[in-house]
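$ fold --in a.seq
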Amino acid sequence: MSQGRSRTAVGFTVKSGWASAILLAGTVKSPRVLDSQRVELSDPAIPESRQPYHAGFATARTSGPELSRLIASVERFGRQSVKDLVQNYQSAEHELRGAGVVVGSLIDPARIGNEHIRIHALEGRLFRGVVEDTVARHQLACSIWRERDLYGFATRMFKQPEEELRGTLAALGRGLAGAWRAEQKTAALAAWLVLAGHLPASQAVQGAQK
């Protein structure tokens, strides 16, 4: 990870039990990746915590002590993981402008009739909340995008065709160790938008939470 004072932004793509985190620096026209990490949001020592609302395939875990224990373990372990990441960046003298968080859905799980989809929505809200709460505790502005809205929002903000944006994102990952898949690219794009000052993105999707 590069050393020295620089203005940066961190992007997260949140999945079930983990998140892809990208630290981005540079200018709006010439961003560069300083770091790419997988952040564990669930405790590997408690495998069930990766999908705490699942009792089995497509089956919801009933409310009770076991569900409460799993949720508490996610909040404890996940917050510590994100805290460690942010503090490591700050201790390396990176001036974090804020955080961008990419999620699959923003809909209220209570509005979902299908039980299996509702289970996934509950888990998505839990893991997203862990990331949001932790970056907020570090007094970082946090913007949220639904993954399916992200590229459309970015094309409008950057006034670039989507194909061109995707090409830039693909190039950002060249030469990096580790994976550079869709999760890393969307996290990088979220960080890029934050670096460019397009905040808060969450307001852009509030009217379309489906």
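$ fold --in b.seq
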Amino acid sequence: MNTFHPDRAAAFAADRSHAHWHDTALWFVREKRDRGAASVPEWERLRDAAAGIKAQALSNLAAYLEEFERNATANGIRVHWARDGEEHNRIVHEILAARGVRLVVKSKSMLTEECGLNPYLEARGLEVVDTDLGERIVQLAKEPPSHIVMPAIHRRKESIGELFHEKLGTPAGASDPKLLTEAARQDLRRKFLGAQAGLTGVNFALADTGGIVVVTNEGNADMGTSLPPVHVASMGVEKVIPRAADLGVFLRLLARSATGQPVSTYTSHFHGPMRGGELHVVVVDNGRSEILAREPFRKSLACIRCGACLNTCPVYRRSGGYSYSYLIPGPIGAVLGALRDPERHASLPFASSLCGSCTDVCPVQVDLHHQLLALRADVAARGILPWGKRMGMRLAGLVLRHPSLYRLAGGLARRALRGAPGLVRIGPAATWARQRQLPGAPSESFREIWRRGGA
């Protein structure tokens, strides 16, 4: 079994100060999400609607994709189809090479990360510049994103200041976010003005209008698609939704789930190329059809990449994005990675407490913790679970199936704890409870209270 996640998680957690900072930063975003959701009385009805729309789209995916292609072509958009990441990269390169493109500005796109587009183009002599600030930071640092919405969340401002001093010439020791952002803006402005093509992802594709929608907070996608004459958009097949009228449901959910904002700063609609320009949409499968065919995991394709499951996950918050062996971290990445390559990513279904918080916050109601549990069984059935873990799980199952063994195990545990006086009374949990003036543990167990009440 691949032990990538446990080993990397242990290394991340060893730096307790940084791990605590990472945890706190993400929980701050989670709390903003909660306030944003609470501000919309019909929040749960919106989630129901979004889940239903996605279920309808996935149930009729081929028909909606064909409808999208017809309408997009009628709008002057050139639609290309790619079976996998290699074909996607080849198509994009052929489009750019045929037009003599040497410099490309790229908006955030997890699909292009999945396909490895940047190194593919760079190996063929093109300069690719990521224009989302977080993506630009990790690109300069030669790192992959550690989060699908906040790619550089693992880096503190002091670390970014050192990086910008080395790469962009900012003053040594400078860590003021405003100064660093302005330095990145000035550097990127030159790239925008010199680029011959812009690359984006696709947040939503509208079957009934043939348009695509790109959502950003920085306006970089608009700059990258309005200045160069060529716009290439990479789109997973699961991004199509039936109607433009459905879009409002997702836009009310997306920003609040991602960052707690009422709405993203820029929601850009493209229903054709700009005058004198070209718009190409590359529709990519890359294993999505196989997931669609697996009923227990089909709903994972409904994901709108808001990152809410990462922000709430106690494992991701305390182990960091680089502890995951798949390019998308967190609960959704654990599901997608294990589905894509079970042996390589066999540790990921176990990188979860199964607390269900990821499912609770998902704006499209993907049942992530149920899928992670099912994937654990899948890993075990494939025989790629270590012997020690298999035996431990069998022993736990045996104890839980037999009340007498369960009581015996509980009694042994209580006796063991008696040998560590004050463990519960003076432990971190007790300190935390005292600080918040919470009541202590009752002197009687729940079973004893229940029996006394029943008598």
